[in-house]
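Database export, one record per block. Field names are fixed; values are copied verbatim from the stored entry.
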Amino acid sequence: MKLRLRYIVLALLLTGCAGQKGHQSDINRQPTAKRMLDGNRATFSSPKLTYRSEPTPFDAFIEQAAKRYGVDETLIKAIIQVESGFRPEVVSKSNAVGLMQIKATTAGRDAYRMKGKSGQPTVRELKDPETNIDLGTAYISMLKKQHLEGISNPETLYYATIVAYVNGAGALLRTFDSNRTVAINKINRMTPDQFYQYVQNNHPAPQAPRYLWKVKNAYRGLAITQ
């Protein structure tokens, strides 16, 4: 009887050890996930968001335009990523053309004026990557230094520039107040996060909040991978 009890105890011990080894083996086989630090907490990067971090045929033009107009190079790339996916031949239904999807009659005309030219660019010019990037970057510079002048926080200005690029600086400021000075003062009393959320909840154009979210995420992805 005692011998039989010894066999039973031994069998239970062996079973327990095998179970522990199997559990450890399962842990070791778990796939690892790519993580990035978000503040003080670790979060898993989304597999749904992909970014173009490899070199492109347009990098030299982007670098030159960024230096020429004092615009963040990564912001230019993020806008191109969202606007055209780096396809210079794209023309939208509203006749926005090229890499940065410039409309000749609005942003194109304004950028021409900033460069001391009259009239507006042709479709052929806007399909040329170097010209398109130059005019698009000039327009970003105009938004920051003229139309959105007075916004004091750099991060808030970054968000405001993105929204103004897609839907106009006037529409953005009117979201806060019809008086430009009052609108700028309201914006300056907000934190960047408060401004971002206000635009998400109150901008009258549905595409503006979505565009801000897309460019923000594209920028983040490009900044991580560069």
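Remark 1: Strands lie at 35-38, 41-44, 96-97, 102-103.
Remark 2: The longest helix spans residues 2-29.
End of record.
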